[in-house]
Design a protein that fits this description.
eight-stranded mixed β-sheet; 16 strands; 366 residues; globular; 13 helices; single chain; alpha/beta
Length: 366
Amino acid sequence: MNKILIIAPDYYPAKGGVENFLFNLNKYLDKKYDIEIFSGTRVSPKISKKYIINNVTINKHKTFKFFGIDFPISIFTYFELFKAIKKNDIVFINDVKMLFFSIIFFTKLLNKKTILVTHGLIFHNNRYILFKNFFIKIYLFIFKNFITKIVSNGMTDNKFLLKNMVNSNLINNGISLDKFKCNRNIIKERFVYFGRLSLNKGIENLINFLSIYKKKSPNFKLIIMGSGDFLYTKYLKNKINNMNLSENIELIGEFSHEELMKELSISEFVFNPSKFESFGFTLIEALAAGCTVIASNIEQYQLIDNGSNSFYLVDFKNNKLLFDTINKARSNYQNANIQAIVLAKNFSIDTMSQKYLKLLNEISKQ
């Protein structure tokens, strides 16, 4: 049985797109491979230990971010990384911002096979853009010469790599559809956002709009479910207070799956105002629950859109268009939940996992 080392910026029970992707995928991989996780603490800085979930060993090492890059707290983490890579056959890389150059050096030195999943690469936001534009050239050189297989987990990444003459396998992320089945009994003007709180999520644009929406509908409620970047969360809290929206908007921090499903069952709309996504897990999860989603008109979401009455794309800085979109969604609400579930079925975890198993089998035989 081949051994696979999965390296990620964080891991379950931390919540986020990468963490959910790996947790779901591992349920399939550990049936055929011996899996080990080497994780940082990007999302859950208080958790740093060795533990086991579903027979998979997770080794979490404390990390901190500097200029958007994850660095280990202890220099001995590099030694632990070397040992972990040495005893495994395939290294499964899930972030180019965490120990990436060390991983490439060690895998080359030890002649290990590698698979890289893009997860948006380095362009989640416009911070340090000059720095990013310089370093992406180095990344592209490494992709072409030192990675065995690359997976683009969204069409945006796939198109970017093709434009730069880097071959990749397009495998859209998938979710466990059954986990999101629920009976919907909506409360009008109750809205929800769920997911990580970080600068690329664009939640401030939603808050700006709702400050105007309140003039017409003073009793609306928005529930923001999730945690993440400390400074961004503080910024959102101050913005809510300064706009006198503290009675309308509630931030509840980390949440359980049961709490999420309860909220999805009663919310009229799920808002997803992201400025950038490499895929968009929460959007698919909301559709799988039968929710009507109003999301940003960004490239990745355009590739998901099929004209369904359950899924609307809009510029969150265009207040008039947002009002019109909400009214349109309300007028087309009949059967929208069925259309949402049908759309979500295009992104099943089963389909995704079979593609990864096939790709890993190809790598094993090389």
